[in-house]
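User: Structure please.
Assistant: Input sequence and predicted structure:
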Amino acid sequence: MRLFDLHCDTLTEAMNAGLPLRENRLQLSFARGAAYRPWVQTMAVFVPDTLRGDAAWHYFCRAEAYLTAQLHENPEVRRVRSAEDLRALTQTNAAGVMLAVEGGAVLGGRLERIAQLAEAGVRMLTLTWNGADELGGGADEPGGLTPFGRAALPELQKYGIVPDLSHASDALFWDVCASTNGPLVATHSNSRMVCGFRRNLTDAQFCEIARRGGLVGINLYPSFINGRSDASLDEIYAHIDRFCALGGERVLALGTDFDGASMPAELPDIASLGRLWEYLLRKNMKESLVRGLFFDHAADFFCGL
């Protein structure tokens, strides 16, 4: 089974707990993902809203160094920095890690750090977490793009870093759409029509990402699925079905949020994702769409950047 996951928080969870990425007590590890080949795991450096300025940047640097050390100890897992790396990984059925950052506070208000992120291999930047930062408003603190945020968008596009709107306020989402014509992603967001959680996407937002040829990763956190503490496979399917009904089949990917949230009892960790694959086939979802959701759509997107 092939897997491309757009979002997990395992890197910072492991770093802060002093745990290895190969085998650990977390929801994701290299060992538990060994059944998936090729496997591309996007690992986000989650920057808490308590960190700003140089502190946020140094936190990223520490996490990137931790990832580099872990990959050195696990040479069978490759670093995916480019479309060429991704194509090579796919052709050889290997495993790899793509780096992202969750929280635009990492820039500390300095545009030159975008080039430094690109040099480190960062492919996506979640513009805000739940709070506001130098770029704009988050889900808990509504507000649109700041002047710095408007200046950052063309720099992100220049360096091939895709803006991730999963934690954006509605005002920030539409400001970004008005300020750039490039592709956009929401790495771990579901349908607000199905579950009215503020972090989910409205139909109009999903359709705008689809119109731009972007990606939306289905989040497995029950709060995003039904607003409760557990969720069924049927309830996950309702979000996929809603997005498909909007004509967004080729936009869909997985954005599990492993190690950033609690998981449904039926999908407790990365090793359990085969249950979702089998369930979707039993629902008579086309196998080509299931393959697209699990791998092909994200791979095609990043190979085309």
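The radius of gyration is 18 Å.
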